[in-house]
């Protein structure tokens, strides 16, 4: 039997419970949202999570903000609200926000040719590529040939992408640009930024500072000790070969964290990601809230640019992309139309369901390695139950 003491503060339940304490779970849930913390706890009991955090905004208010588990496999240091987590391609959603801000300011146009802003890009069959092609993974440049240690050199990566020949005619189909999207979209932002900032600095100045959140693309060295290292899930750890284990060394390398690699190397928390999506859809009610973008431009940013039933040429499964955002209507049908966001390798995700006035984020250090998984099983039951309750007007 679970014994708990609940203290109601501004409609929140503060957790003081033996079972939760055993797994270092702390945080808040609004009245009626306690089921989320129970399911969150279950992931630790079943060893699906080592350290993780989850956050939900609903109708403009933060209703779930939970953190738990361990910082690393030594299980000495708790995973706490100071912990930053590598969130892989969940980073791409923040890149899409940066581009949308530039579109709203008249600096970029989704329908314009890339060469209008970046003349050097127009070579070797890429002359007719549009901004929308880059953002919706239709540019034909899903890979780079450079070694990983060159990823830290923004200029070198941009030069390589300028010279590459596309694998398909840009705009004719889509294939996930897992390792190139961030540089392609990020360079567009850099080219039109009147202040000529680095992409990471643009995100800090225009996105995270106004919303009082953290999302680092190019981690300051003095924050490195806050980053929880990623580790494989227990059921696959013993079957990974040496080359696969090397990838974990790369992902945990401080030099990679501190470089601006907006394809996948973003450091954040679930609370910050959920809050950023809430700000993007204009759904923060407290005095610190600032809408990142007007509704008209938000709608443009989340409109699908993938033809019906078109299969991803790279991964060979069905996917739908808007202007940098992954569309989740097919994966999360209970959340209504225009569900958008981005998930990352390992299981992390951030998304918004505008018609339900809800945003959701989950990040973790124990990662799964199946790229075909869109919604990680650790959060599927949570999402099912949240949808059931908001659709029944339980709250």
TrEMBL record:
Transmembrane segments: none annotated. Residues 50-371 form the Beta-lactamase-related domain. The keyword Signal applies. Residues 1-17 form the signal peptide. InterPro entries: Beta-lactam-related (IPR001466), Beta-lactam/transpept-like (IPR012338), Beta-lactamase/esterase (IPR052907). PANTHER family: BETA-LACTAMASE-RELATED, BETA-LACTAMASE-RELATED DOMAIN-CONTAINING PROTEIN. This is Beta-lactamase-related domain-containing protein. The lineage of its organism: Eukaryota, Metazoa, Spiralia, Gnathifera, Rotifera.
